[in-house]
């Protein structure tokens, strides 16, 4: 593993909460580029973790480079192929960031007359912490656990649809947002260990600053 990989893995491990999933009233899939999300949703649905699945997301700043339609629609199609019944799938296809994923899903459930209070949230591994902190802020009265596709750092970074350099830039940007968004009240504040912040600063110095605010 190169020095850059070692530094990036420190950030990835920090982002990745690795919490066991818990049964809930609905599985909420936060929109992204990775079809591993649909596979994880189908796996958990078929294991009886929840009776409903919401796929969220339009095209974001990054996914607009590779997708010609909303993330939610692509993930829902994949989820149906993998065994989630179509009548158990809800699609929220307007959101373009994590906060909107959650807020617009909340609105969708209200429109459908579904008063659901417990969620099993699925994100990509390197966004688990930000997703959890955002959910805590946007929907503080709801119960949730967060999980992600069961893949390793190497699989996430090197076997992705995006180049490895872009993936590391994204991981660095996610850490900066974890700090800044917590300070601004957009998500719950997170303690960032000195080792993690030092790895972040070193990666920025090495030029991984393309996804910073």
| CATH C-level category of the largest domain | Alpha Beta
Domains (count): 2
Order of helices and strands: HEHEHEHEHEHHH
* CATH topology group of the largest domain: Rossmann fold
Could you name the ranges where pLDDT drops below 50 across 5 or more consecutive residues? none
Largest sheet: 5 strands, parallel
Average pLDDT taken over every residue: 93
Shape field: globular
State the CATH superfamily name of the largest domain: HUPs
Q: What share of residues are in beta strands?
A: 5-15%
Gap between N and C termini: 28 Å
Tell how many strands the DSSP assignment holds: 5
Cα gyration radius (Å): 17 Å
Helix tally?
A: 8
What is the helix fraction of residues, given as a range?
Answer: 40-55%
> How are strands sequenced across the largest beta sheet?
3-2-1-4-5
Annotated CATH architecture of the largest domain: 3-Layer(aba) Sandwich
Description of the molecule:
With 213 residues, this protein is α/β, with parallel strands linked by helices. It folds into 2 domains: 62 residues, no CATH class; 133 residues, Rossmann fold (3-Layer(aba) Sandwich), CATH 3.40.50. Helix content is 46%, strand content 10%. The chain is built from 8 helices and 5 strands. It has a 5-stranded parallel β-sheet with strand order 3-2-1-4-5, sandwiched between helices. α5 links the parallel β4 and β5. α4 crosses α5. It is globular and about 50 Å long. The two termini are 28 Å apart.
Notable characteristics:
alpha/beta, 2 domains, Rossmann fold, single chain, 213 residues, 46% helix, 5 strands
